[in-house]
Design a protein that fits this description.
Helix 8 links the parallel strand 7 and strand 8. It is built from ten helices and eight strands. The chain is α/β, with parallel strands linked by helices. It has one domain: Alpha-Beta Barrel (TIM Barrel). It has an eight-stranded parallel beta sheet, sandwiched between helices. 38% of the residues lie in helices and 13% in strands. The protein has helices at residues 33-42, 57-69, 87-92, 113-118, 120-131, 148-153, 175-186, 209-223, 243-253, 259-274; strands spanning 3-7, 47-51, 73-78, 100-105, 135-138, 160-162, 191-195, 228-230.
């Protein structure tokens, strides 16, 4: 089964998505399962993981509501206040929501990402997530990645997913530091990495395969094919490239892999990490 392990849905209202600025015209509209379905079908993708795009619990409810009516949504990564003293009670409201697979916090948007990842309350929250069988997805930018190894080492009771390869600046000057921190994460077997969100990390107006292959190659060398997950980051990817272009970019790079490795990257690993059944 082929799975897009990272995409988003929203009903657009400017006040709810302040991160979508006026320069992001492609995102200032509704993006719903009916819009994504043709793209999945065209590329033989059976299902997707819907990931939060707003930092409130209503976002989790919204995605679960969509998932209830859409078989192609195999799992949801929601949001909850991980620092909340009553976190167990908050999590309990979603008991029985079988498609809820985990949570994410927008650490990249914190004024001090390192302080967030060291925060006692935040760490208690992530530990509680793992104890209840939830995946936690880590979203940081490459300059913030230095705080990630210690954080990830402290939370090895369940899967941790690094979104967007740690958001390297494609073609930038920080590759050595990014790769060093990525190597530290790769030494932890409970950490997996999404091959997603890369096209929007380049300042270039054009998306050329060669720009990205060295980052994908580094991820493959460090994590191996069994800990990499394909994700489109649709519709955010539309800022730089179509769904088809993103899919073809990863598919073209994956020609160097064996058939079993391709199957793992494009679905098998997501099924294992998110505990998905064979049929979405």
């Amino acid at each position: 089964m082929r799975i897009d392990a990272h995409q988003h849905f929203w009903r657009y209202r400017a006040q709810d998505y302040l991160w979508i600025t006026h320069g992001m015209a492609a995102l200032r509209a509704d993006h719903l399962p009916t819009d994504l379905a043709p793209q999945l079908a065209r590329h033989g993708v059976d299902a997707s993981i819907a990931v939060q795009a707003r930092a409130n619990e209503a976002e989790t409810d919204f995605l679960l509501e969509l998932a209830q009516d859409e078989a192609r949504i195999a799992g949801v990564i929601g949001w909850v206040d991980l620092r909340a003293a009553d976190l167990p009670r908050r999590l309990a409201r979603w008991d029985g929501a079988g498609k809820l697979k985990g949570f994410r916090h927008l650490v990249q948007d914190e004024a001090d990402a390192s302080a967030c990842l060291r925060c006692d309350a935040f760490n208690r929250g992530v530990a509680q997530l793992q104890q209840s069988g939830n995946v936690y997805e880590l979203l940081v930018r490459a300059p913030q990645l230095g705080a990630a190894p210690a954080f990830c080492a402290a939370h090895d009771a369940h899967w941790l997913v690094l979104d967007h390869l740690g958001k390297p600046e494609i073609g930038g000057r920080g590759d050595a530091e990014w790769q060093r921190h990525l190597a530290e994460l790769a030494r932890m077997p409970h950490v997996v990495c999404k091959l997603s969100g890369l096209v929007t990390e380049t300042g270039s107006r054009n998306v050329f395969d060669a720009m990205f292959y060295r980052y994908l190659d580094a991820a493959l060398e460090l994590f191996g094919a069994q800990r990499l997950l394909f994700g489109s980051d649709w519709p955010v990817c539309l800022l730089k490239a179509s769904y088809a272009r993103v899919y073809e970019l990863i598919e073209g790079w994956a020609r160097r892999l064996s058939a079993s490795e391709v199957a793992a990257v494009f679905g098998g690993n997501a099924m294992r990490v998110y505990g998905l059944a064979e049929t979405p």
